């Protein structure tokens, strides 16, 4: 499940985070997998998240928007630079219903205990 939170921008304590796969920040800590990105009309999950979660093209993903709803969405397979990646079907519907705009900054973390992607909208400073 993905949970979206409304919090302040990430603190400097997260300097160990690597900038990989086109996302602004992606955790390389397998115990606390997360990523941060500026919202676009597509949500393509980072490889680290799909590897740790076991998600694939036959999976449904639970997305929890903090202070919002829980959504269950299908995944679609994409080929990006020769690698199999997974996009969330219906992401624009979530954005509209949860009042998240293109260009907003969001923080996503994978909850291993709940098998959910948690989404937090970051407040502008």
From TrEMBL:
Keywords associated with the record: DNA-binding, Nucleus, Transcription, Transcription regulation
Keyword Transcription regulation: yes
Native source organism of the sequence: Helianthus annuus
Alphabetical list of InterPro entries matching this protein: DNA-bd_pseudobarrel_sf (IPR015300)
Annotated SUPFAM superfamilies: DNA-binding pseudobarrel domain
Gene Ontology MF annotations: DNA binding
Name of this protein: Putative DNA-binding pseudobarrel domain-containing protein
Protein localization: Nucleus
Keyword NADP: no
Lineage top rank: taxon: Eukaryota
